[in-house]
Amino acid sequence: MKPLIVVAAFHAPFVLMGAPARSAPLTPQQVAMYRQCRSVNTQRPEEFAHRLCGCAVQAYEAGLPAAAAMEQCSAFASGN
After folding, report:
1. How many CA atoms, within 13 angstroms, populate the side-chain half-sphere of residue 11?
2. What are the tens digits of pLDDT across the range 43-80?
3. Are 7 and 19 within 8 A, CB to CB?
4. pLDDT exceeds cutoff 60 at 7
C-alpha cells in the first residue's frame, strides 16, 4: 500500500492514496476541469462540491481511475 500524502488544493486539505503534493499554480486545464465539475454539482451544498471537485482534479492528475477516485472523493467531501 502506498503511503498517504496530504494534498492541499482549492483551500481544502484532503488525502489521496499516493497522490503527488501540488505546489504549482493550477493549469488552465485543471481550472476548466474544476469548473466543469462544479457546474455538474450545482445541486450539492457549496462546500461539498468544492471539496469533491478539488479532490477529483487532483485524482485525475495523479492518474487514479475515475470510478475509484470519485468514490474516494465523495467520501472525503462527505466526511470533512
Report:
1. 4
2. 999 999 999 999 999 998 888 888 888 889 999 998 86
3. yes
4. no
Closest listed residue to residue 62, CA positions, set 14, 27, 20: 20
Element (H, E) at 74: helix 66-79
Query: Are 21 and 35 a contacting pair, CB within 8 Å?
Result: no
Q: How many residues does the chain have?
A: 80
For residues 2 and 79, give the distance between their C-alpha atoms in angstroms, rounded to a whole number. 22
| Cβ atoms of 62 and 55 closer than 8 Å | no
Provide the total of helices (H) and of strands (E) in the chain, helices listed first: 3, 2
